[in-house]
Amino acid sequence: MRISVSDLPVTQLEAEALIMVLSKDAGVPGLWQPLDDTEAGMISETLTSSAFSGKAGQTLTLPLRDAGPARYLVLAGLGKAEEVDVESWRRAVGSGFTAARSRGAKSVAVPVPESSDIAASEIAAASAEAALLASYRFQEYKEVPDDQVDVVALVIGSGDPAAGEAVSQATTVAEATCWARDLINRPGNAKRPAALAEEIEKMAAEHGLRCEVLGAERCAELGMNALISVGQGSSVPPQLVLLEHGMEEADEPPVVLVGKGITFDSGGISIKPSLNMGEMKSDMSGAAAVVATMRALADLDVRRPVVGVTPLAENMPSSSASRPGDVVRAFGKKSIEIVNTDAEGRLVLADALAYALERYEPACMVDLATLTGACVVALGSAAAGLMGTDDELCEQLRAAGETSGDRVWRLPLWGAYDELIDSDVADMKNSGGRYAGAITAAKLLQRFVGDTPWAHLDIAGTAFTKKASAYQPKGGTGFGVRLLTRWLLT
To answer: Is residue 114 located within the same domain as residue 67?
Structure first.
């Protein structure tokens, strides 16, 4: 989609559909008055009727007669005026964009108000982001219908001098998010560890990132036995992929991002129920978020050293798979009793975190993982679980989540939870049982980060969706890319 910024009046914007974003029970904003005059008061008449109230998620499409190139006006609701924030705009524009596309519009314009409690450049960026994310379709394996309509041009109407740069940045991040969605939505047979590592290598070469892939033999030599144990039931061995940005001239320790990359999770010997198991192709969503964030950082030329670490493995049942009751020594020699082979994500993350800690001596570490069903029970799909050892880091991530729309909610990591993962035969066990499951999983990871500031994001409820929303089609969401880039750009 071609995206541009224009300071032309609403009636002169080159687009087939105009999206008018309104709060609940609002009148015609001054920005839109010339169009209302041109259309003989149609907009104001509609807003005084019961046809459109401006509640969140509501859209109404009106045909236009004398509005220049525009054929449709799409009204999109923001909700209550006192509750409007950037995410409200993002959702409203996403809904409006989808409505415009359903009418066959191939070009869309989103005029942005100049006077608002939110900076116009911020609204402009959110609008561009929402349109790109709402336009996403995963069609690698489907024949494209002859009557499919795609929006090819988006105009953001704004006179704010900062809007151009803000929209450009948002476009880069949204495109990276859509690439993450592609990785997540691909079937498990198309992204087994070696294939996904090759895809990441290709991206790194195209976007100027340094990439190193450690194969299974090298991982075993280094003592990453937890990672090896998870992948040993598969015919395709595990990999550890390292991406580096800004390390050559760095005069400060890097930020390390770690993403869980289970390319398909059958549960191993502790096999999952067959119902919906196909969705376990998304168990590499943490890795997708990390590598897509690294892509965005490279494209934005962010001036700080960042490292992305993605342990990749396929968790399958076979005669060579790990068994419940097995004990492995992770990187750094700590031993883990495997009481449940379906609690595999924390095993691959343990090795990745410990290795990154020793190799890079980072300023801080953040990991993302579709780790526990317990987090889904606690928070649903509205927010990811946030746990960590550093209050400042956790607050930065929370704030970035509020602005980006990738929201997080903090859960405790009190010492009282440690005893739940104590083992009779090893230093720890990989599952603490039914209660506080999201927290006990994080407690295991905490044992591998030393004193380095660390935060863990359990994205199990936010990484994949069965229900489309304002700017999110069904499937992989790319959750975490916008959150991490927002945090690292702040």
So the answer is: yes
Nearest by Cα to 151 from 170, 133, 173, 172: 133
**Enclosing domain of residue 190:** 174-489
Among 88, 123, 157, where does a domain finish?
Answer: 157
The one catalytic residue among 346, 407, 443, 447: 346
Could you tell me if residue 455 is inside a domain?
yes
Q: β-strand 153-157 against 107-111: which pairing, if any?
A: parallel
- In the chain, the number of structural domains is 2
In the annotation, is 346 catalytic? yes
Q: Which of 24, 272, 334, 410 is catalytic?
A: 272
CA-based Rg of the chain, rounded to a whole angstrom? 24
Co-location of 120 and 197 in the same domain: no
Can you name the residues that pair with 428 across neighbouring β-strands? 336
pLDDT along the chain (490 residues), means of 10: 95 95 88 91 92 95 87 96 94 98 96 86 97 97 91 96 97 98 98 98 98 98 98 98 94 97 98 96 98 98 96 98 98 97 98 98 98 98 98 98 98 97 98 96 98 98 96 97 97
